[in-house]
Write a structure and sequence with these properties.
The protein is an alpha/beta fold. The protein has 15 helices and twelve strands. The chain has three domains: 119 residues, 2-Layer Sandwich (Gyrase A, domain 2), CATH 3.30.1360.120; 141 residues, tRNA modification GTPase MnmE domain 2 (Four Helix Bundle (Hemerythrin (Met), subunit A)), CATH 1.20.120.430; 155 residues, 3-Layer(aba) Sandwich (Rossmann fold). A six-stranded mixed sheet has the order 3-4-5-2-1-6. It has a six-stranded mixed sheet with strand order 8-9-7-10-11-12, sandwiched between helices. The relative contact order is 0.13.
Length: 455
C-alpha cells in the first residue's frame, strides 16, 4: 500500500441501501478512465448528469460525475467521484463496470485508508489530521464530533508544530555554541535557556492534559459494575442508561453473563458492563459468567464495587479485598453502597470514602455521575478539546521525559551542551511522530490499515 502508484477505486459511503451511494476513483490516468466510461471529456469541479452503460450498451444507472484535477483534490491526485443511486446491487454493478473499463490502466480496489494515506503522502494533510478523519467517522458523541473536526482542521497539529518550532529555536542556540565550550554556562544564562525550556515544558504539559481529555471523548471509558449477587448492579445500569437494558429480579444470579451498554454523561461516552454476581456456585452456566466478570474487572478503565446497604458482612469484606487485588493497580475504584432507600430514617451514613445511592429511587445518582467523571480525569469542559489517541499521549509523554532530562542537565553546574542538545532533539523527534514527520513506514501502514476502505 505504501508504494502503490496504480489508480484505485472504492465505495465511499457505508454499505447497505441508501438514497445515494458514492464511488470514488483516484490516481494517475483518471481522465482517461473517465473518458472511456462516459465518452466525454470532463471539466474540473463541474457536475455532469450521465448514464453509465455496460459493455453491451445497456444502462446501469443515471448518476452525477464530478472530476477533481490534481492537486486540487482530497488525495492530491486526479479524482473522479460518481454519485449513484444507493442500491447495494446497483453499486456493485457500477464498481464492476469501472474495474472492467479501468483494467487497461491498472485500476484496483483501494486498501483500507488508502485515500487518506495518499492525501498524507501528497502533503494535503498531516498524520494527525488523517487520524482525525477516522475519529470523526467513529465519534460517539457531539463533543467527540466537534473535537475531531477541530483536529481535522489542523488545530492539534498547529499546537504540536508550535512546540516543535520553539524547541528548534532553542536547539539552534545550543548548537551554535557547541564550538565554544568555555562559554556553555554563560550561554544558558544569556539566552535564558532555562526559562525558555521551562515555558516549552509547561506548554507541552498543558497540551498533554487537553489530549488526555480528547482521548476520553474518542475512546470512551470502560466502566465495570462488580459486586455480589443481588446488590443492584443491573438496576444501576438501568438507572444510568435511562432504560430497562438489563433484567432485574429479586433472585440472586439473574445476570449470568456480561451486559454491555454505551451511555453518555455530559458528552463523555461510557461503555458500562454489568457483570454476573461474584459468588461460589456449582451452576456451570453461572460459573462461566463469573469467570467473565473477573476478566472484565481486570480490563476495566474504571470499576464500581457495589454493596448492599443491608449486607456489609465478612463475605462482602472478603469479596471487596479480592476485587481490589484483581483490579489493575492503575485504575480508579469507586465504592458504592446501594439500596439506601431501605435503611431506617435515622441511620447515619458516615463513611466519607463511600458513595450512598438508591438505584431504585435515583438518590445519589447525580453525585455518582460526577464522581465517575472526576475519577477518569475529565476536566468538566468540552470547549477547545481536541480528539487524541493513545499514540499521541505516548509521544507527548516521551517528549516530556526528554525535556525534563534537559532541565536536569541545565541545573547541573558541569553541563554538557552536547547532551542538552541531544535531549532536545529526542523530544523534537517524539513530537514529529504525532504529525508524521518522523514516523517509521511499518507504523504508518498499521495506522492507515484501521481506516474504512472508502477513506
Amino acid at each position: 500500500m505504501m508504494t502503490r502508484k496504480l489508480p484505485i477505486i472504492a465505495l465511499a459511503t457505508a454499505p447497505g441501501k441508501s438514497g445515494v451511494g458514492v464511488i470514488r476513483l483516484s490516481g494517475a490516468d483518471i481522465p482517461a478512465i473517465a473518458h472511456a466510461l462516459f465518452k466525454k471529456a470532463f471539466k474540473p469541479r463541474q457536475a455532469s448528469l450521465l448514464t453509465l452503460r455496460d459493455g453491451n450498451g445497456l444502462a446501469i444507472d443515471q448518476l452525477l460525475a464530478i472530476y477533481f484535477a490534481a492537486p486540487a483534490s482530497f488525495t492530491g491526485e486526479d479524482v473522479l467521484e460518481l454519485q449513484c443511486h444507493g442500491g447495494p446491487q446497483l453499486l456493485e454493478l457500477v464498481m464492476r463496470r469501472c474495474l472492467e473499463v479501468g483494467k487497461d490502466w491498472g485500476l484496483v480496489i483501494a486498501q483500507p485508508g488508502e485515500f487518506s494515506l495518499r492525501a498524507y503522502l501528497n502533503n494535503k494533510i498531516d498524520l494527525a489530521q488523517a487520524e482525525a478523519i477516522a475519529d470523526l467517522i467513529d465519534a460517539q458523541s457531539e463533543a467527540a464530533v466537534r473535537g475531531a473536526a477541530k483536529s481535522l482542521q489542523g488545530a492539534f497539529s498547529d499546537d504540536i508544530n508550535t512546540l516543535i518550532e520553539e524547541i528548534t529555536q532553542l536547539r539552534i542556540l545550543v548548537e551554535s555554541t557547541l564550538d565554544f565550550p568555555e562559554e556553555e554556562i554563560e550561554f544558558l544564562e544569556s539566552a535564558q535557556a532555562k526559562e525558555r525550556l521551562s515555558a516549552v515544558l509547561a506548554s507541552l504539559r498543558s497540551l498533554r492534559q487537553g489530549a488526555k481529555q480528547g482521548k476520553i471523548l474518542r475512546d470512551g471509558i470502560v466502566l465495570v459494575l462488580a459486586g455480589a449477587p443481588n446488590v443492584g448492579k443491573s438496576s444501576l445500569l438501568n438507572r444510568l442508561a435511562g432504560d430497562e437494558v438489563a433484567i432485574v429480579t429479586p433472585i440472586a444470579g439473574t445476570t449470568r453473563d456480561r451486559v454491555k451498554e454505551t451511555i453518555c454523561i455530559d458528552g463523555v461516552p461510557l461503555h458500562v458492563i454489568d457483570t454476573a454476581g461474584l459468588r461460589e456456585t456449582s451452576d456451570e452456566v453461572e460459573i462461566r459468567g463469573i469467570e467473565r466478570s473477573w476478566d472484565s474487572i481486570r480490563s476495566a478503565d474504571l470499576l464500581i464495587f457495589l454493596q448492599d446497604s443491608s449486607d456489609i458482612s465478612k463475605e462482602t469484606t472478603d469479596l471487596r479485598e479480592r476485587v481490589l487485588k484483581e483490579a489493575p493497580a492503575t485504575i480508579p475504584i469507586l465504592e458504592v453502597v446501594n439500596k439506601v432507600d431501605l435503611l431506617p430514617p435515622n441511620k447515619s451514613l458516615i463513611d466519607k470514602e463511600v458513595l450512598y445511592i438508591s438505584a431504585k429511587t435515583g438518590v445519589g445518582i447525580d453525585d455518582l455521575k460526577q464522581k465517575i467523571l472526576e475519577a477518569v480525569g475529565w476536566g468538566g469542559s468540552q470547549e477547545g478539546v481536541l480528539i487524541a489517541r493513545s499514540r499521541h499521549l505516548d509521544c507527548l509523554d516521551r517528549a516530556a521525559e526528554h525535556l525534563i532530562n534537559s532541565e536536569k542537565l541545565a541545573e547541573d553546574g558541569n553541563i554538557s551542551l552536547e547532551l542538552f542538545a541531544e535531549e532536545l532533539r529526542l523530544a523534537q523527534d517524539q513530537l514529529g511522530q504525532i504529525t508524521g514527520k518522523l514516523l517509521p513506514d511499518d507504523l504508518l501502514g498499521k495506522i492507515f490499515s484501521q481506516f474504512c476502505i472508502g477513506k
